[in-house]
Design goal:
Structural class: mainly beta
Mean pLDDT: 80
CATH topology: Immunoglobulin-like
Order of helices and strands: HEEEEEEEE
Number of strands: 8
Number of helices: 1
Strand order of the largest sheet: 1-8-3-6
Radius of gyration: 18 Å
Helix content: 10-25%
Shape: globular
CATH architecture: Sandwich
Low-confidence stretches: 1-6, 20-27
Oligomer: single chain
Distance between the termini: 41 Å
Strand content: over 45%
Length: 129
């Protein structure tokens, strides 16, 4: 059987090494979590690039549960036309480990959660910017 207690020293060392390498790769980026308190309401968040973060990208992930579909739109305030919006559709049902990665060059971003048909559930959005 598989030992899930992590009493294995080499496995502990491997996990520690992977954690350290992952932390080093992140650099000066800032991981931000947004909890959608009411999934039946549209919500807007604002986010600024972390000081020292020169990578031209944003990584967004979502975890939770929705009784129907919803979407997240990433909008550059300097290019507010819908043509330039980045869209992150959220499916009905369990939402786990859903991730998207986009090139993004501005220093500020508006994050719009649109409930569409969702009326119940819970959702946490995480942004690395």
């Amino acid at each position: 059987m598989f030992d899930t207690t992590l009493n294995n020293q080499p496995l502990k060392k491997l996990i520690l090494l992977v954690t350290l390498l992952t932390s080093a790769c992140v650099g000066d980026s800032k991981l931000t979590r947004f909890r959608i308190e009411n999934v039946a309401e549209d919500t807007v968040f604002y986010l600024e690039r972390s000081r020292g973060n020169k990578r031209p990208r944003i990584l967004m992930s979502a975890v939770g549960y929705l009784d129907s579909t919803a979407s997240v739109f990433l909008i550059n305030p300097q290019q507010a036309e819908r043509l330039y919006w980045l869209t992150f559709p959220l499916p009905k049902g369990p939402v786990d480990s859903l991730k998207r990665d986009w090139d993004y060059y501005a220093d500020r971003i508006e994050i719009h959660y649109k409930h569409e048909k969702a009326t119940e559930g819970s959702l946490i959005l995480t942004a690395d910017f």
